[in-house]
Amino acid sequence: MASAEALTALSRWYLYAIHGYFCEVMFTAAWEFVVNFNWKFPGVTSVWALFIYGTSILIVEHMYLRLRGRCPLLLRCVIYTLWTYLWEFTTGFILRQFNACPWDYSQFDFDFMGLITLEYAVPWFCGAFIMEQFIIRNTLRLRFDKDAEPGEPTSPLALANGHVKTD
């Protein structure tokens, strides 16, 4: 098992970007259904979401690695939520300079410059919990075996009930 290596930062960024992109589409589809009862579930996003989510979750991964033994889960999720608001505001502000910001929260009661809104605090907090507990933790467990042939199991290892079995 000496050839199995952790995923590179670029590989993890890619997985995080795709995950965020997918969640954005699913969230906007669900929101459209809840607010407008639209059974078509049209989910939308922007290509900028790939960069925004990939980079943000990679930064949260670093926070997780530093904070996991130092503060409780709920406090970490509050920190991640605050980071999300800061990141959403910053990226939105930059994109707005080029007329490229894909979101506008101006219609919400508790928005700030239309770039962030407090109405999303609970969804962002729940997303932070899911991100740490499922996405980041499992992504960090993934390994890349550079010597493996595509479609073939690694030679000395066999899977037994989802666990690596070494004889």
Automatic annotation (TrEMBL):
Keyword Acyltransferase: no
Membrane topology: Multi-pass membrane protein
Family under the similarity heading: Belongs to the TMEM229 family.
Protein name from the UniProt record: Transmembrane protein 229B
Domain of life: Eukaryota
InterPro entries named among the record's database cross-references: CmpB_TMEM229
Record keywords: Membrane, Transmembrane, Transmembrane helix
Gene Ontology cellular component list: membrane
Membrane-spanning parts: 13-34, 46-65, 77-95, 115-136
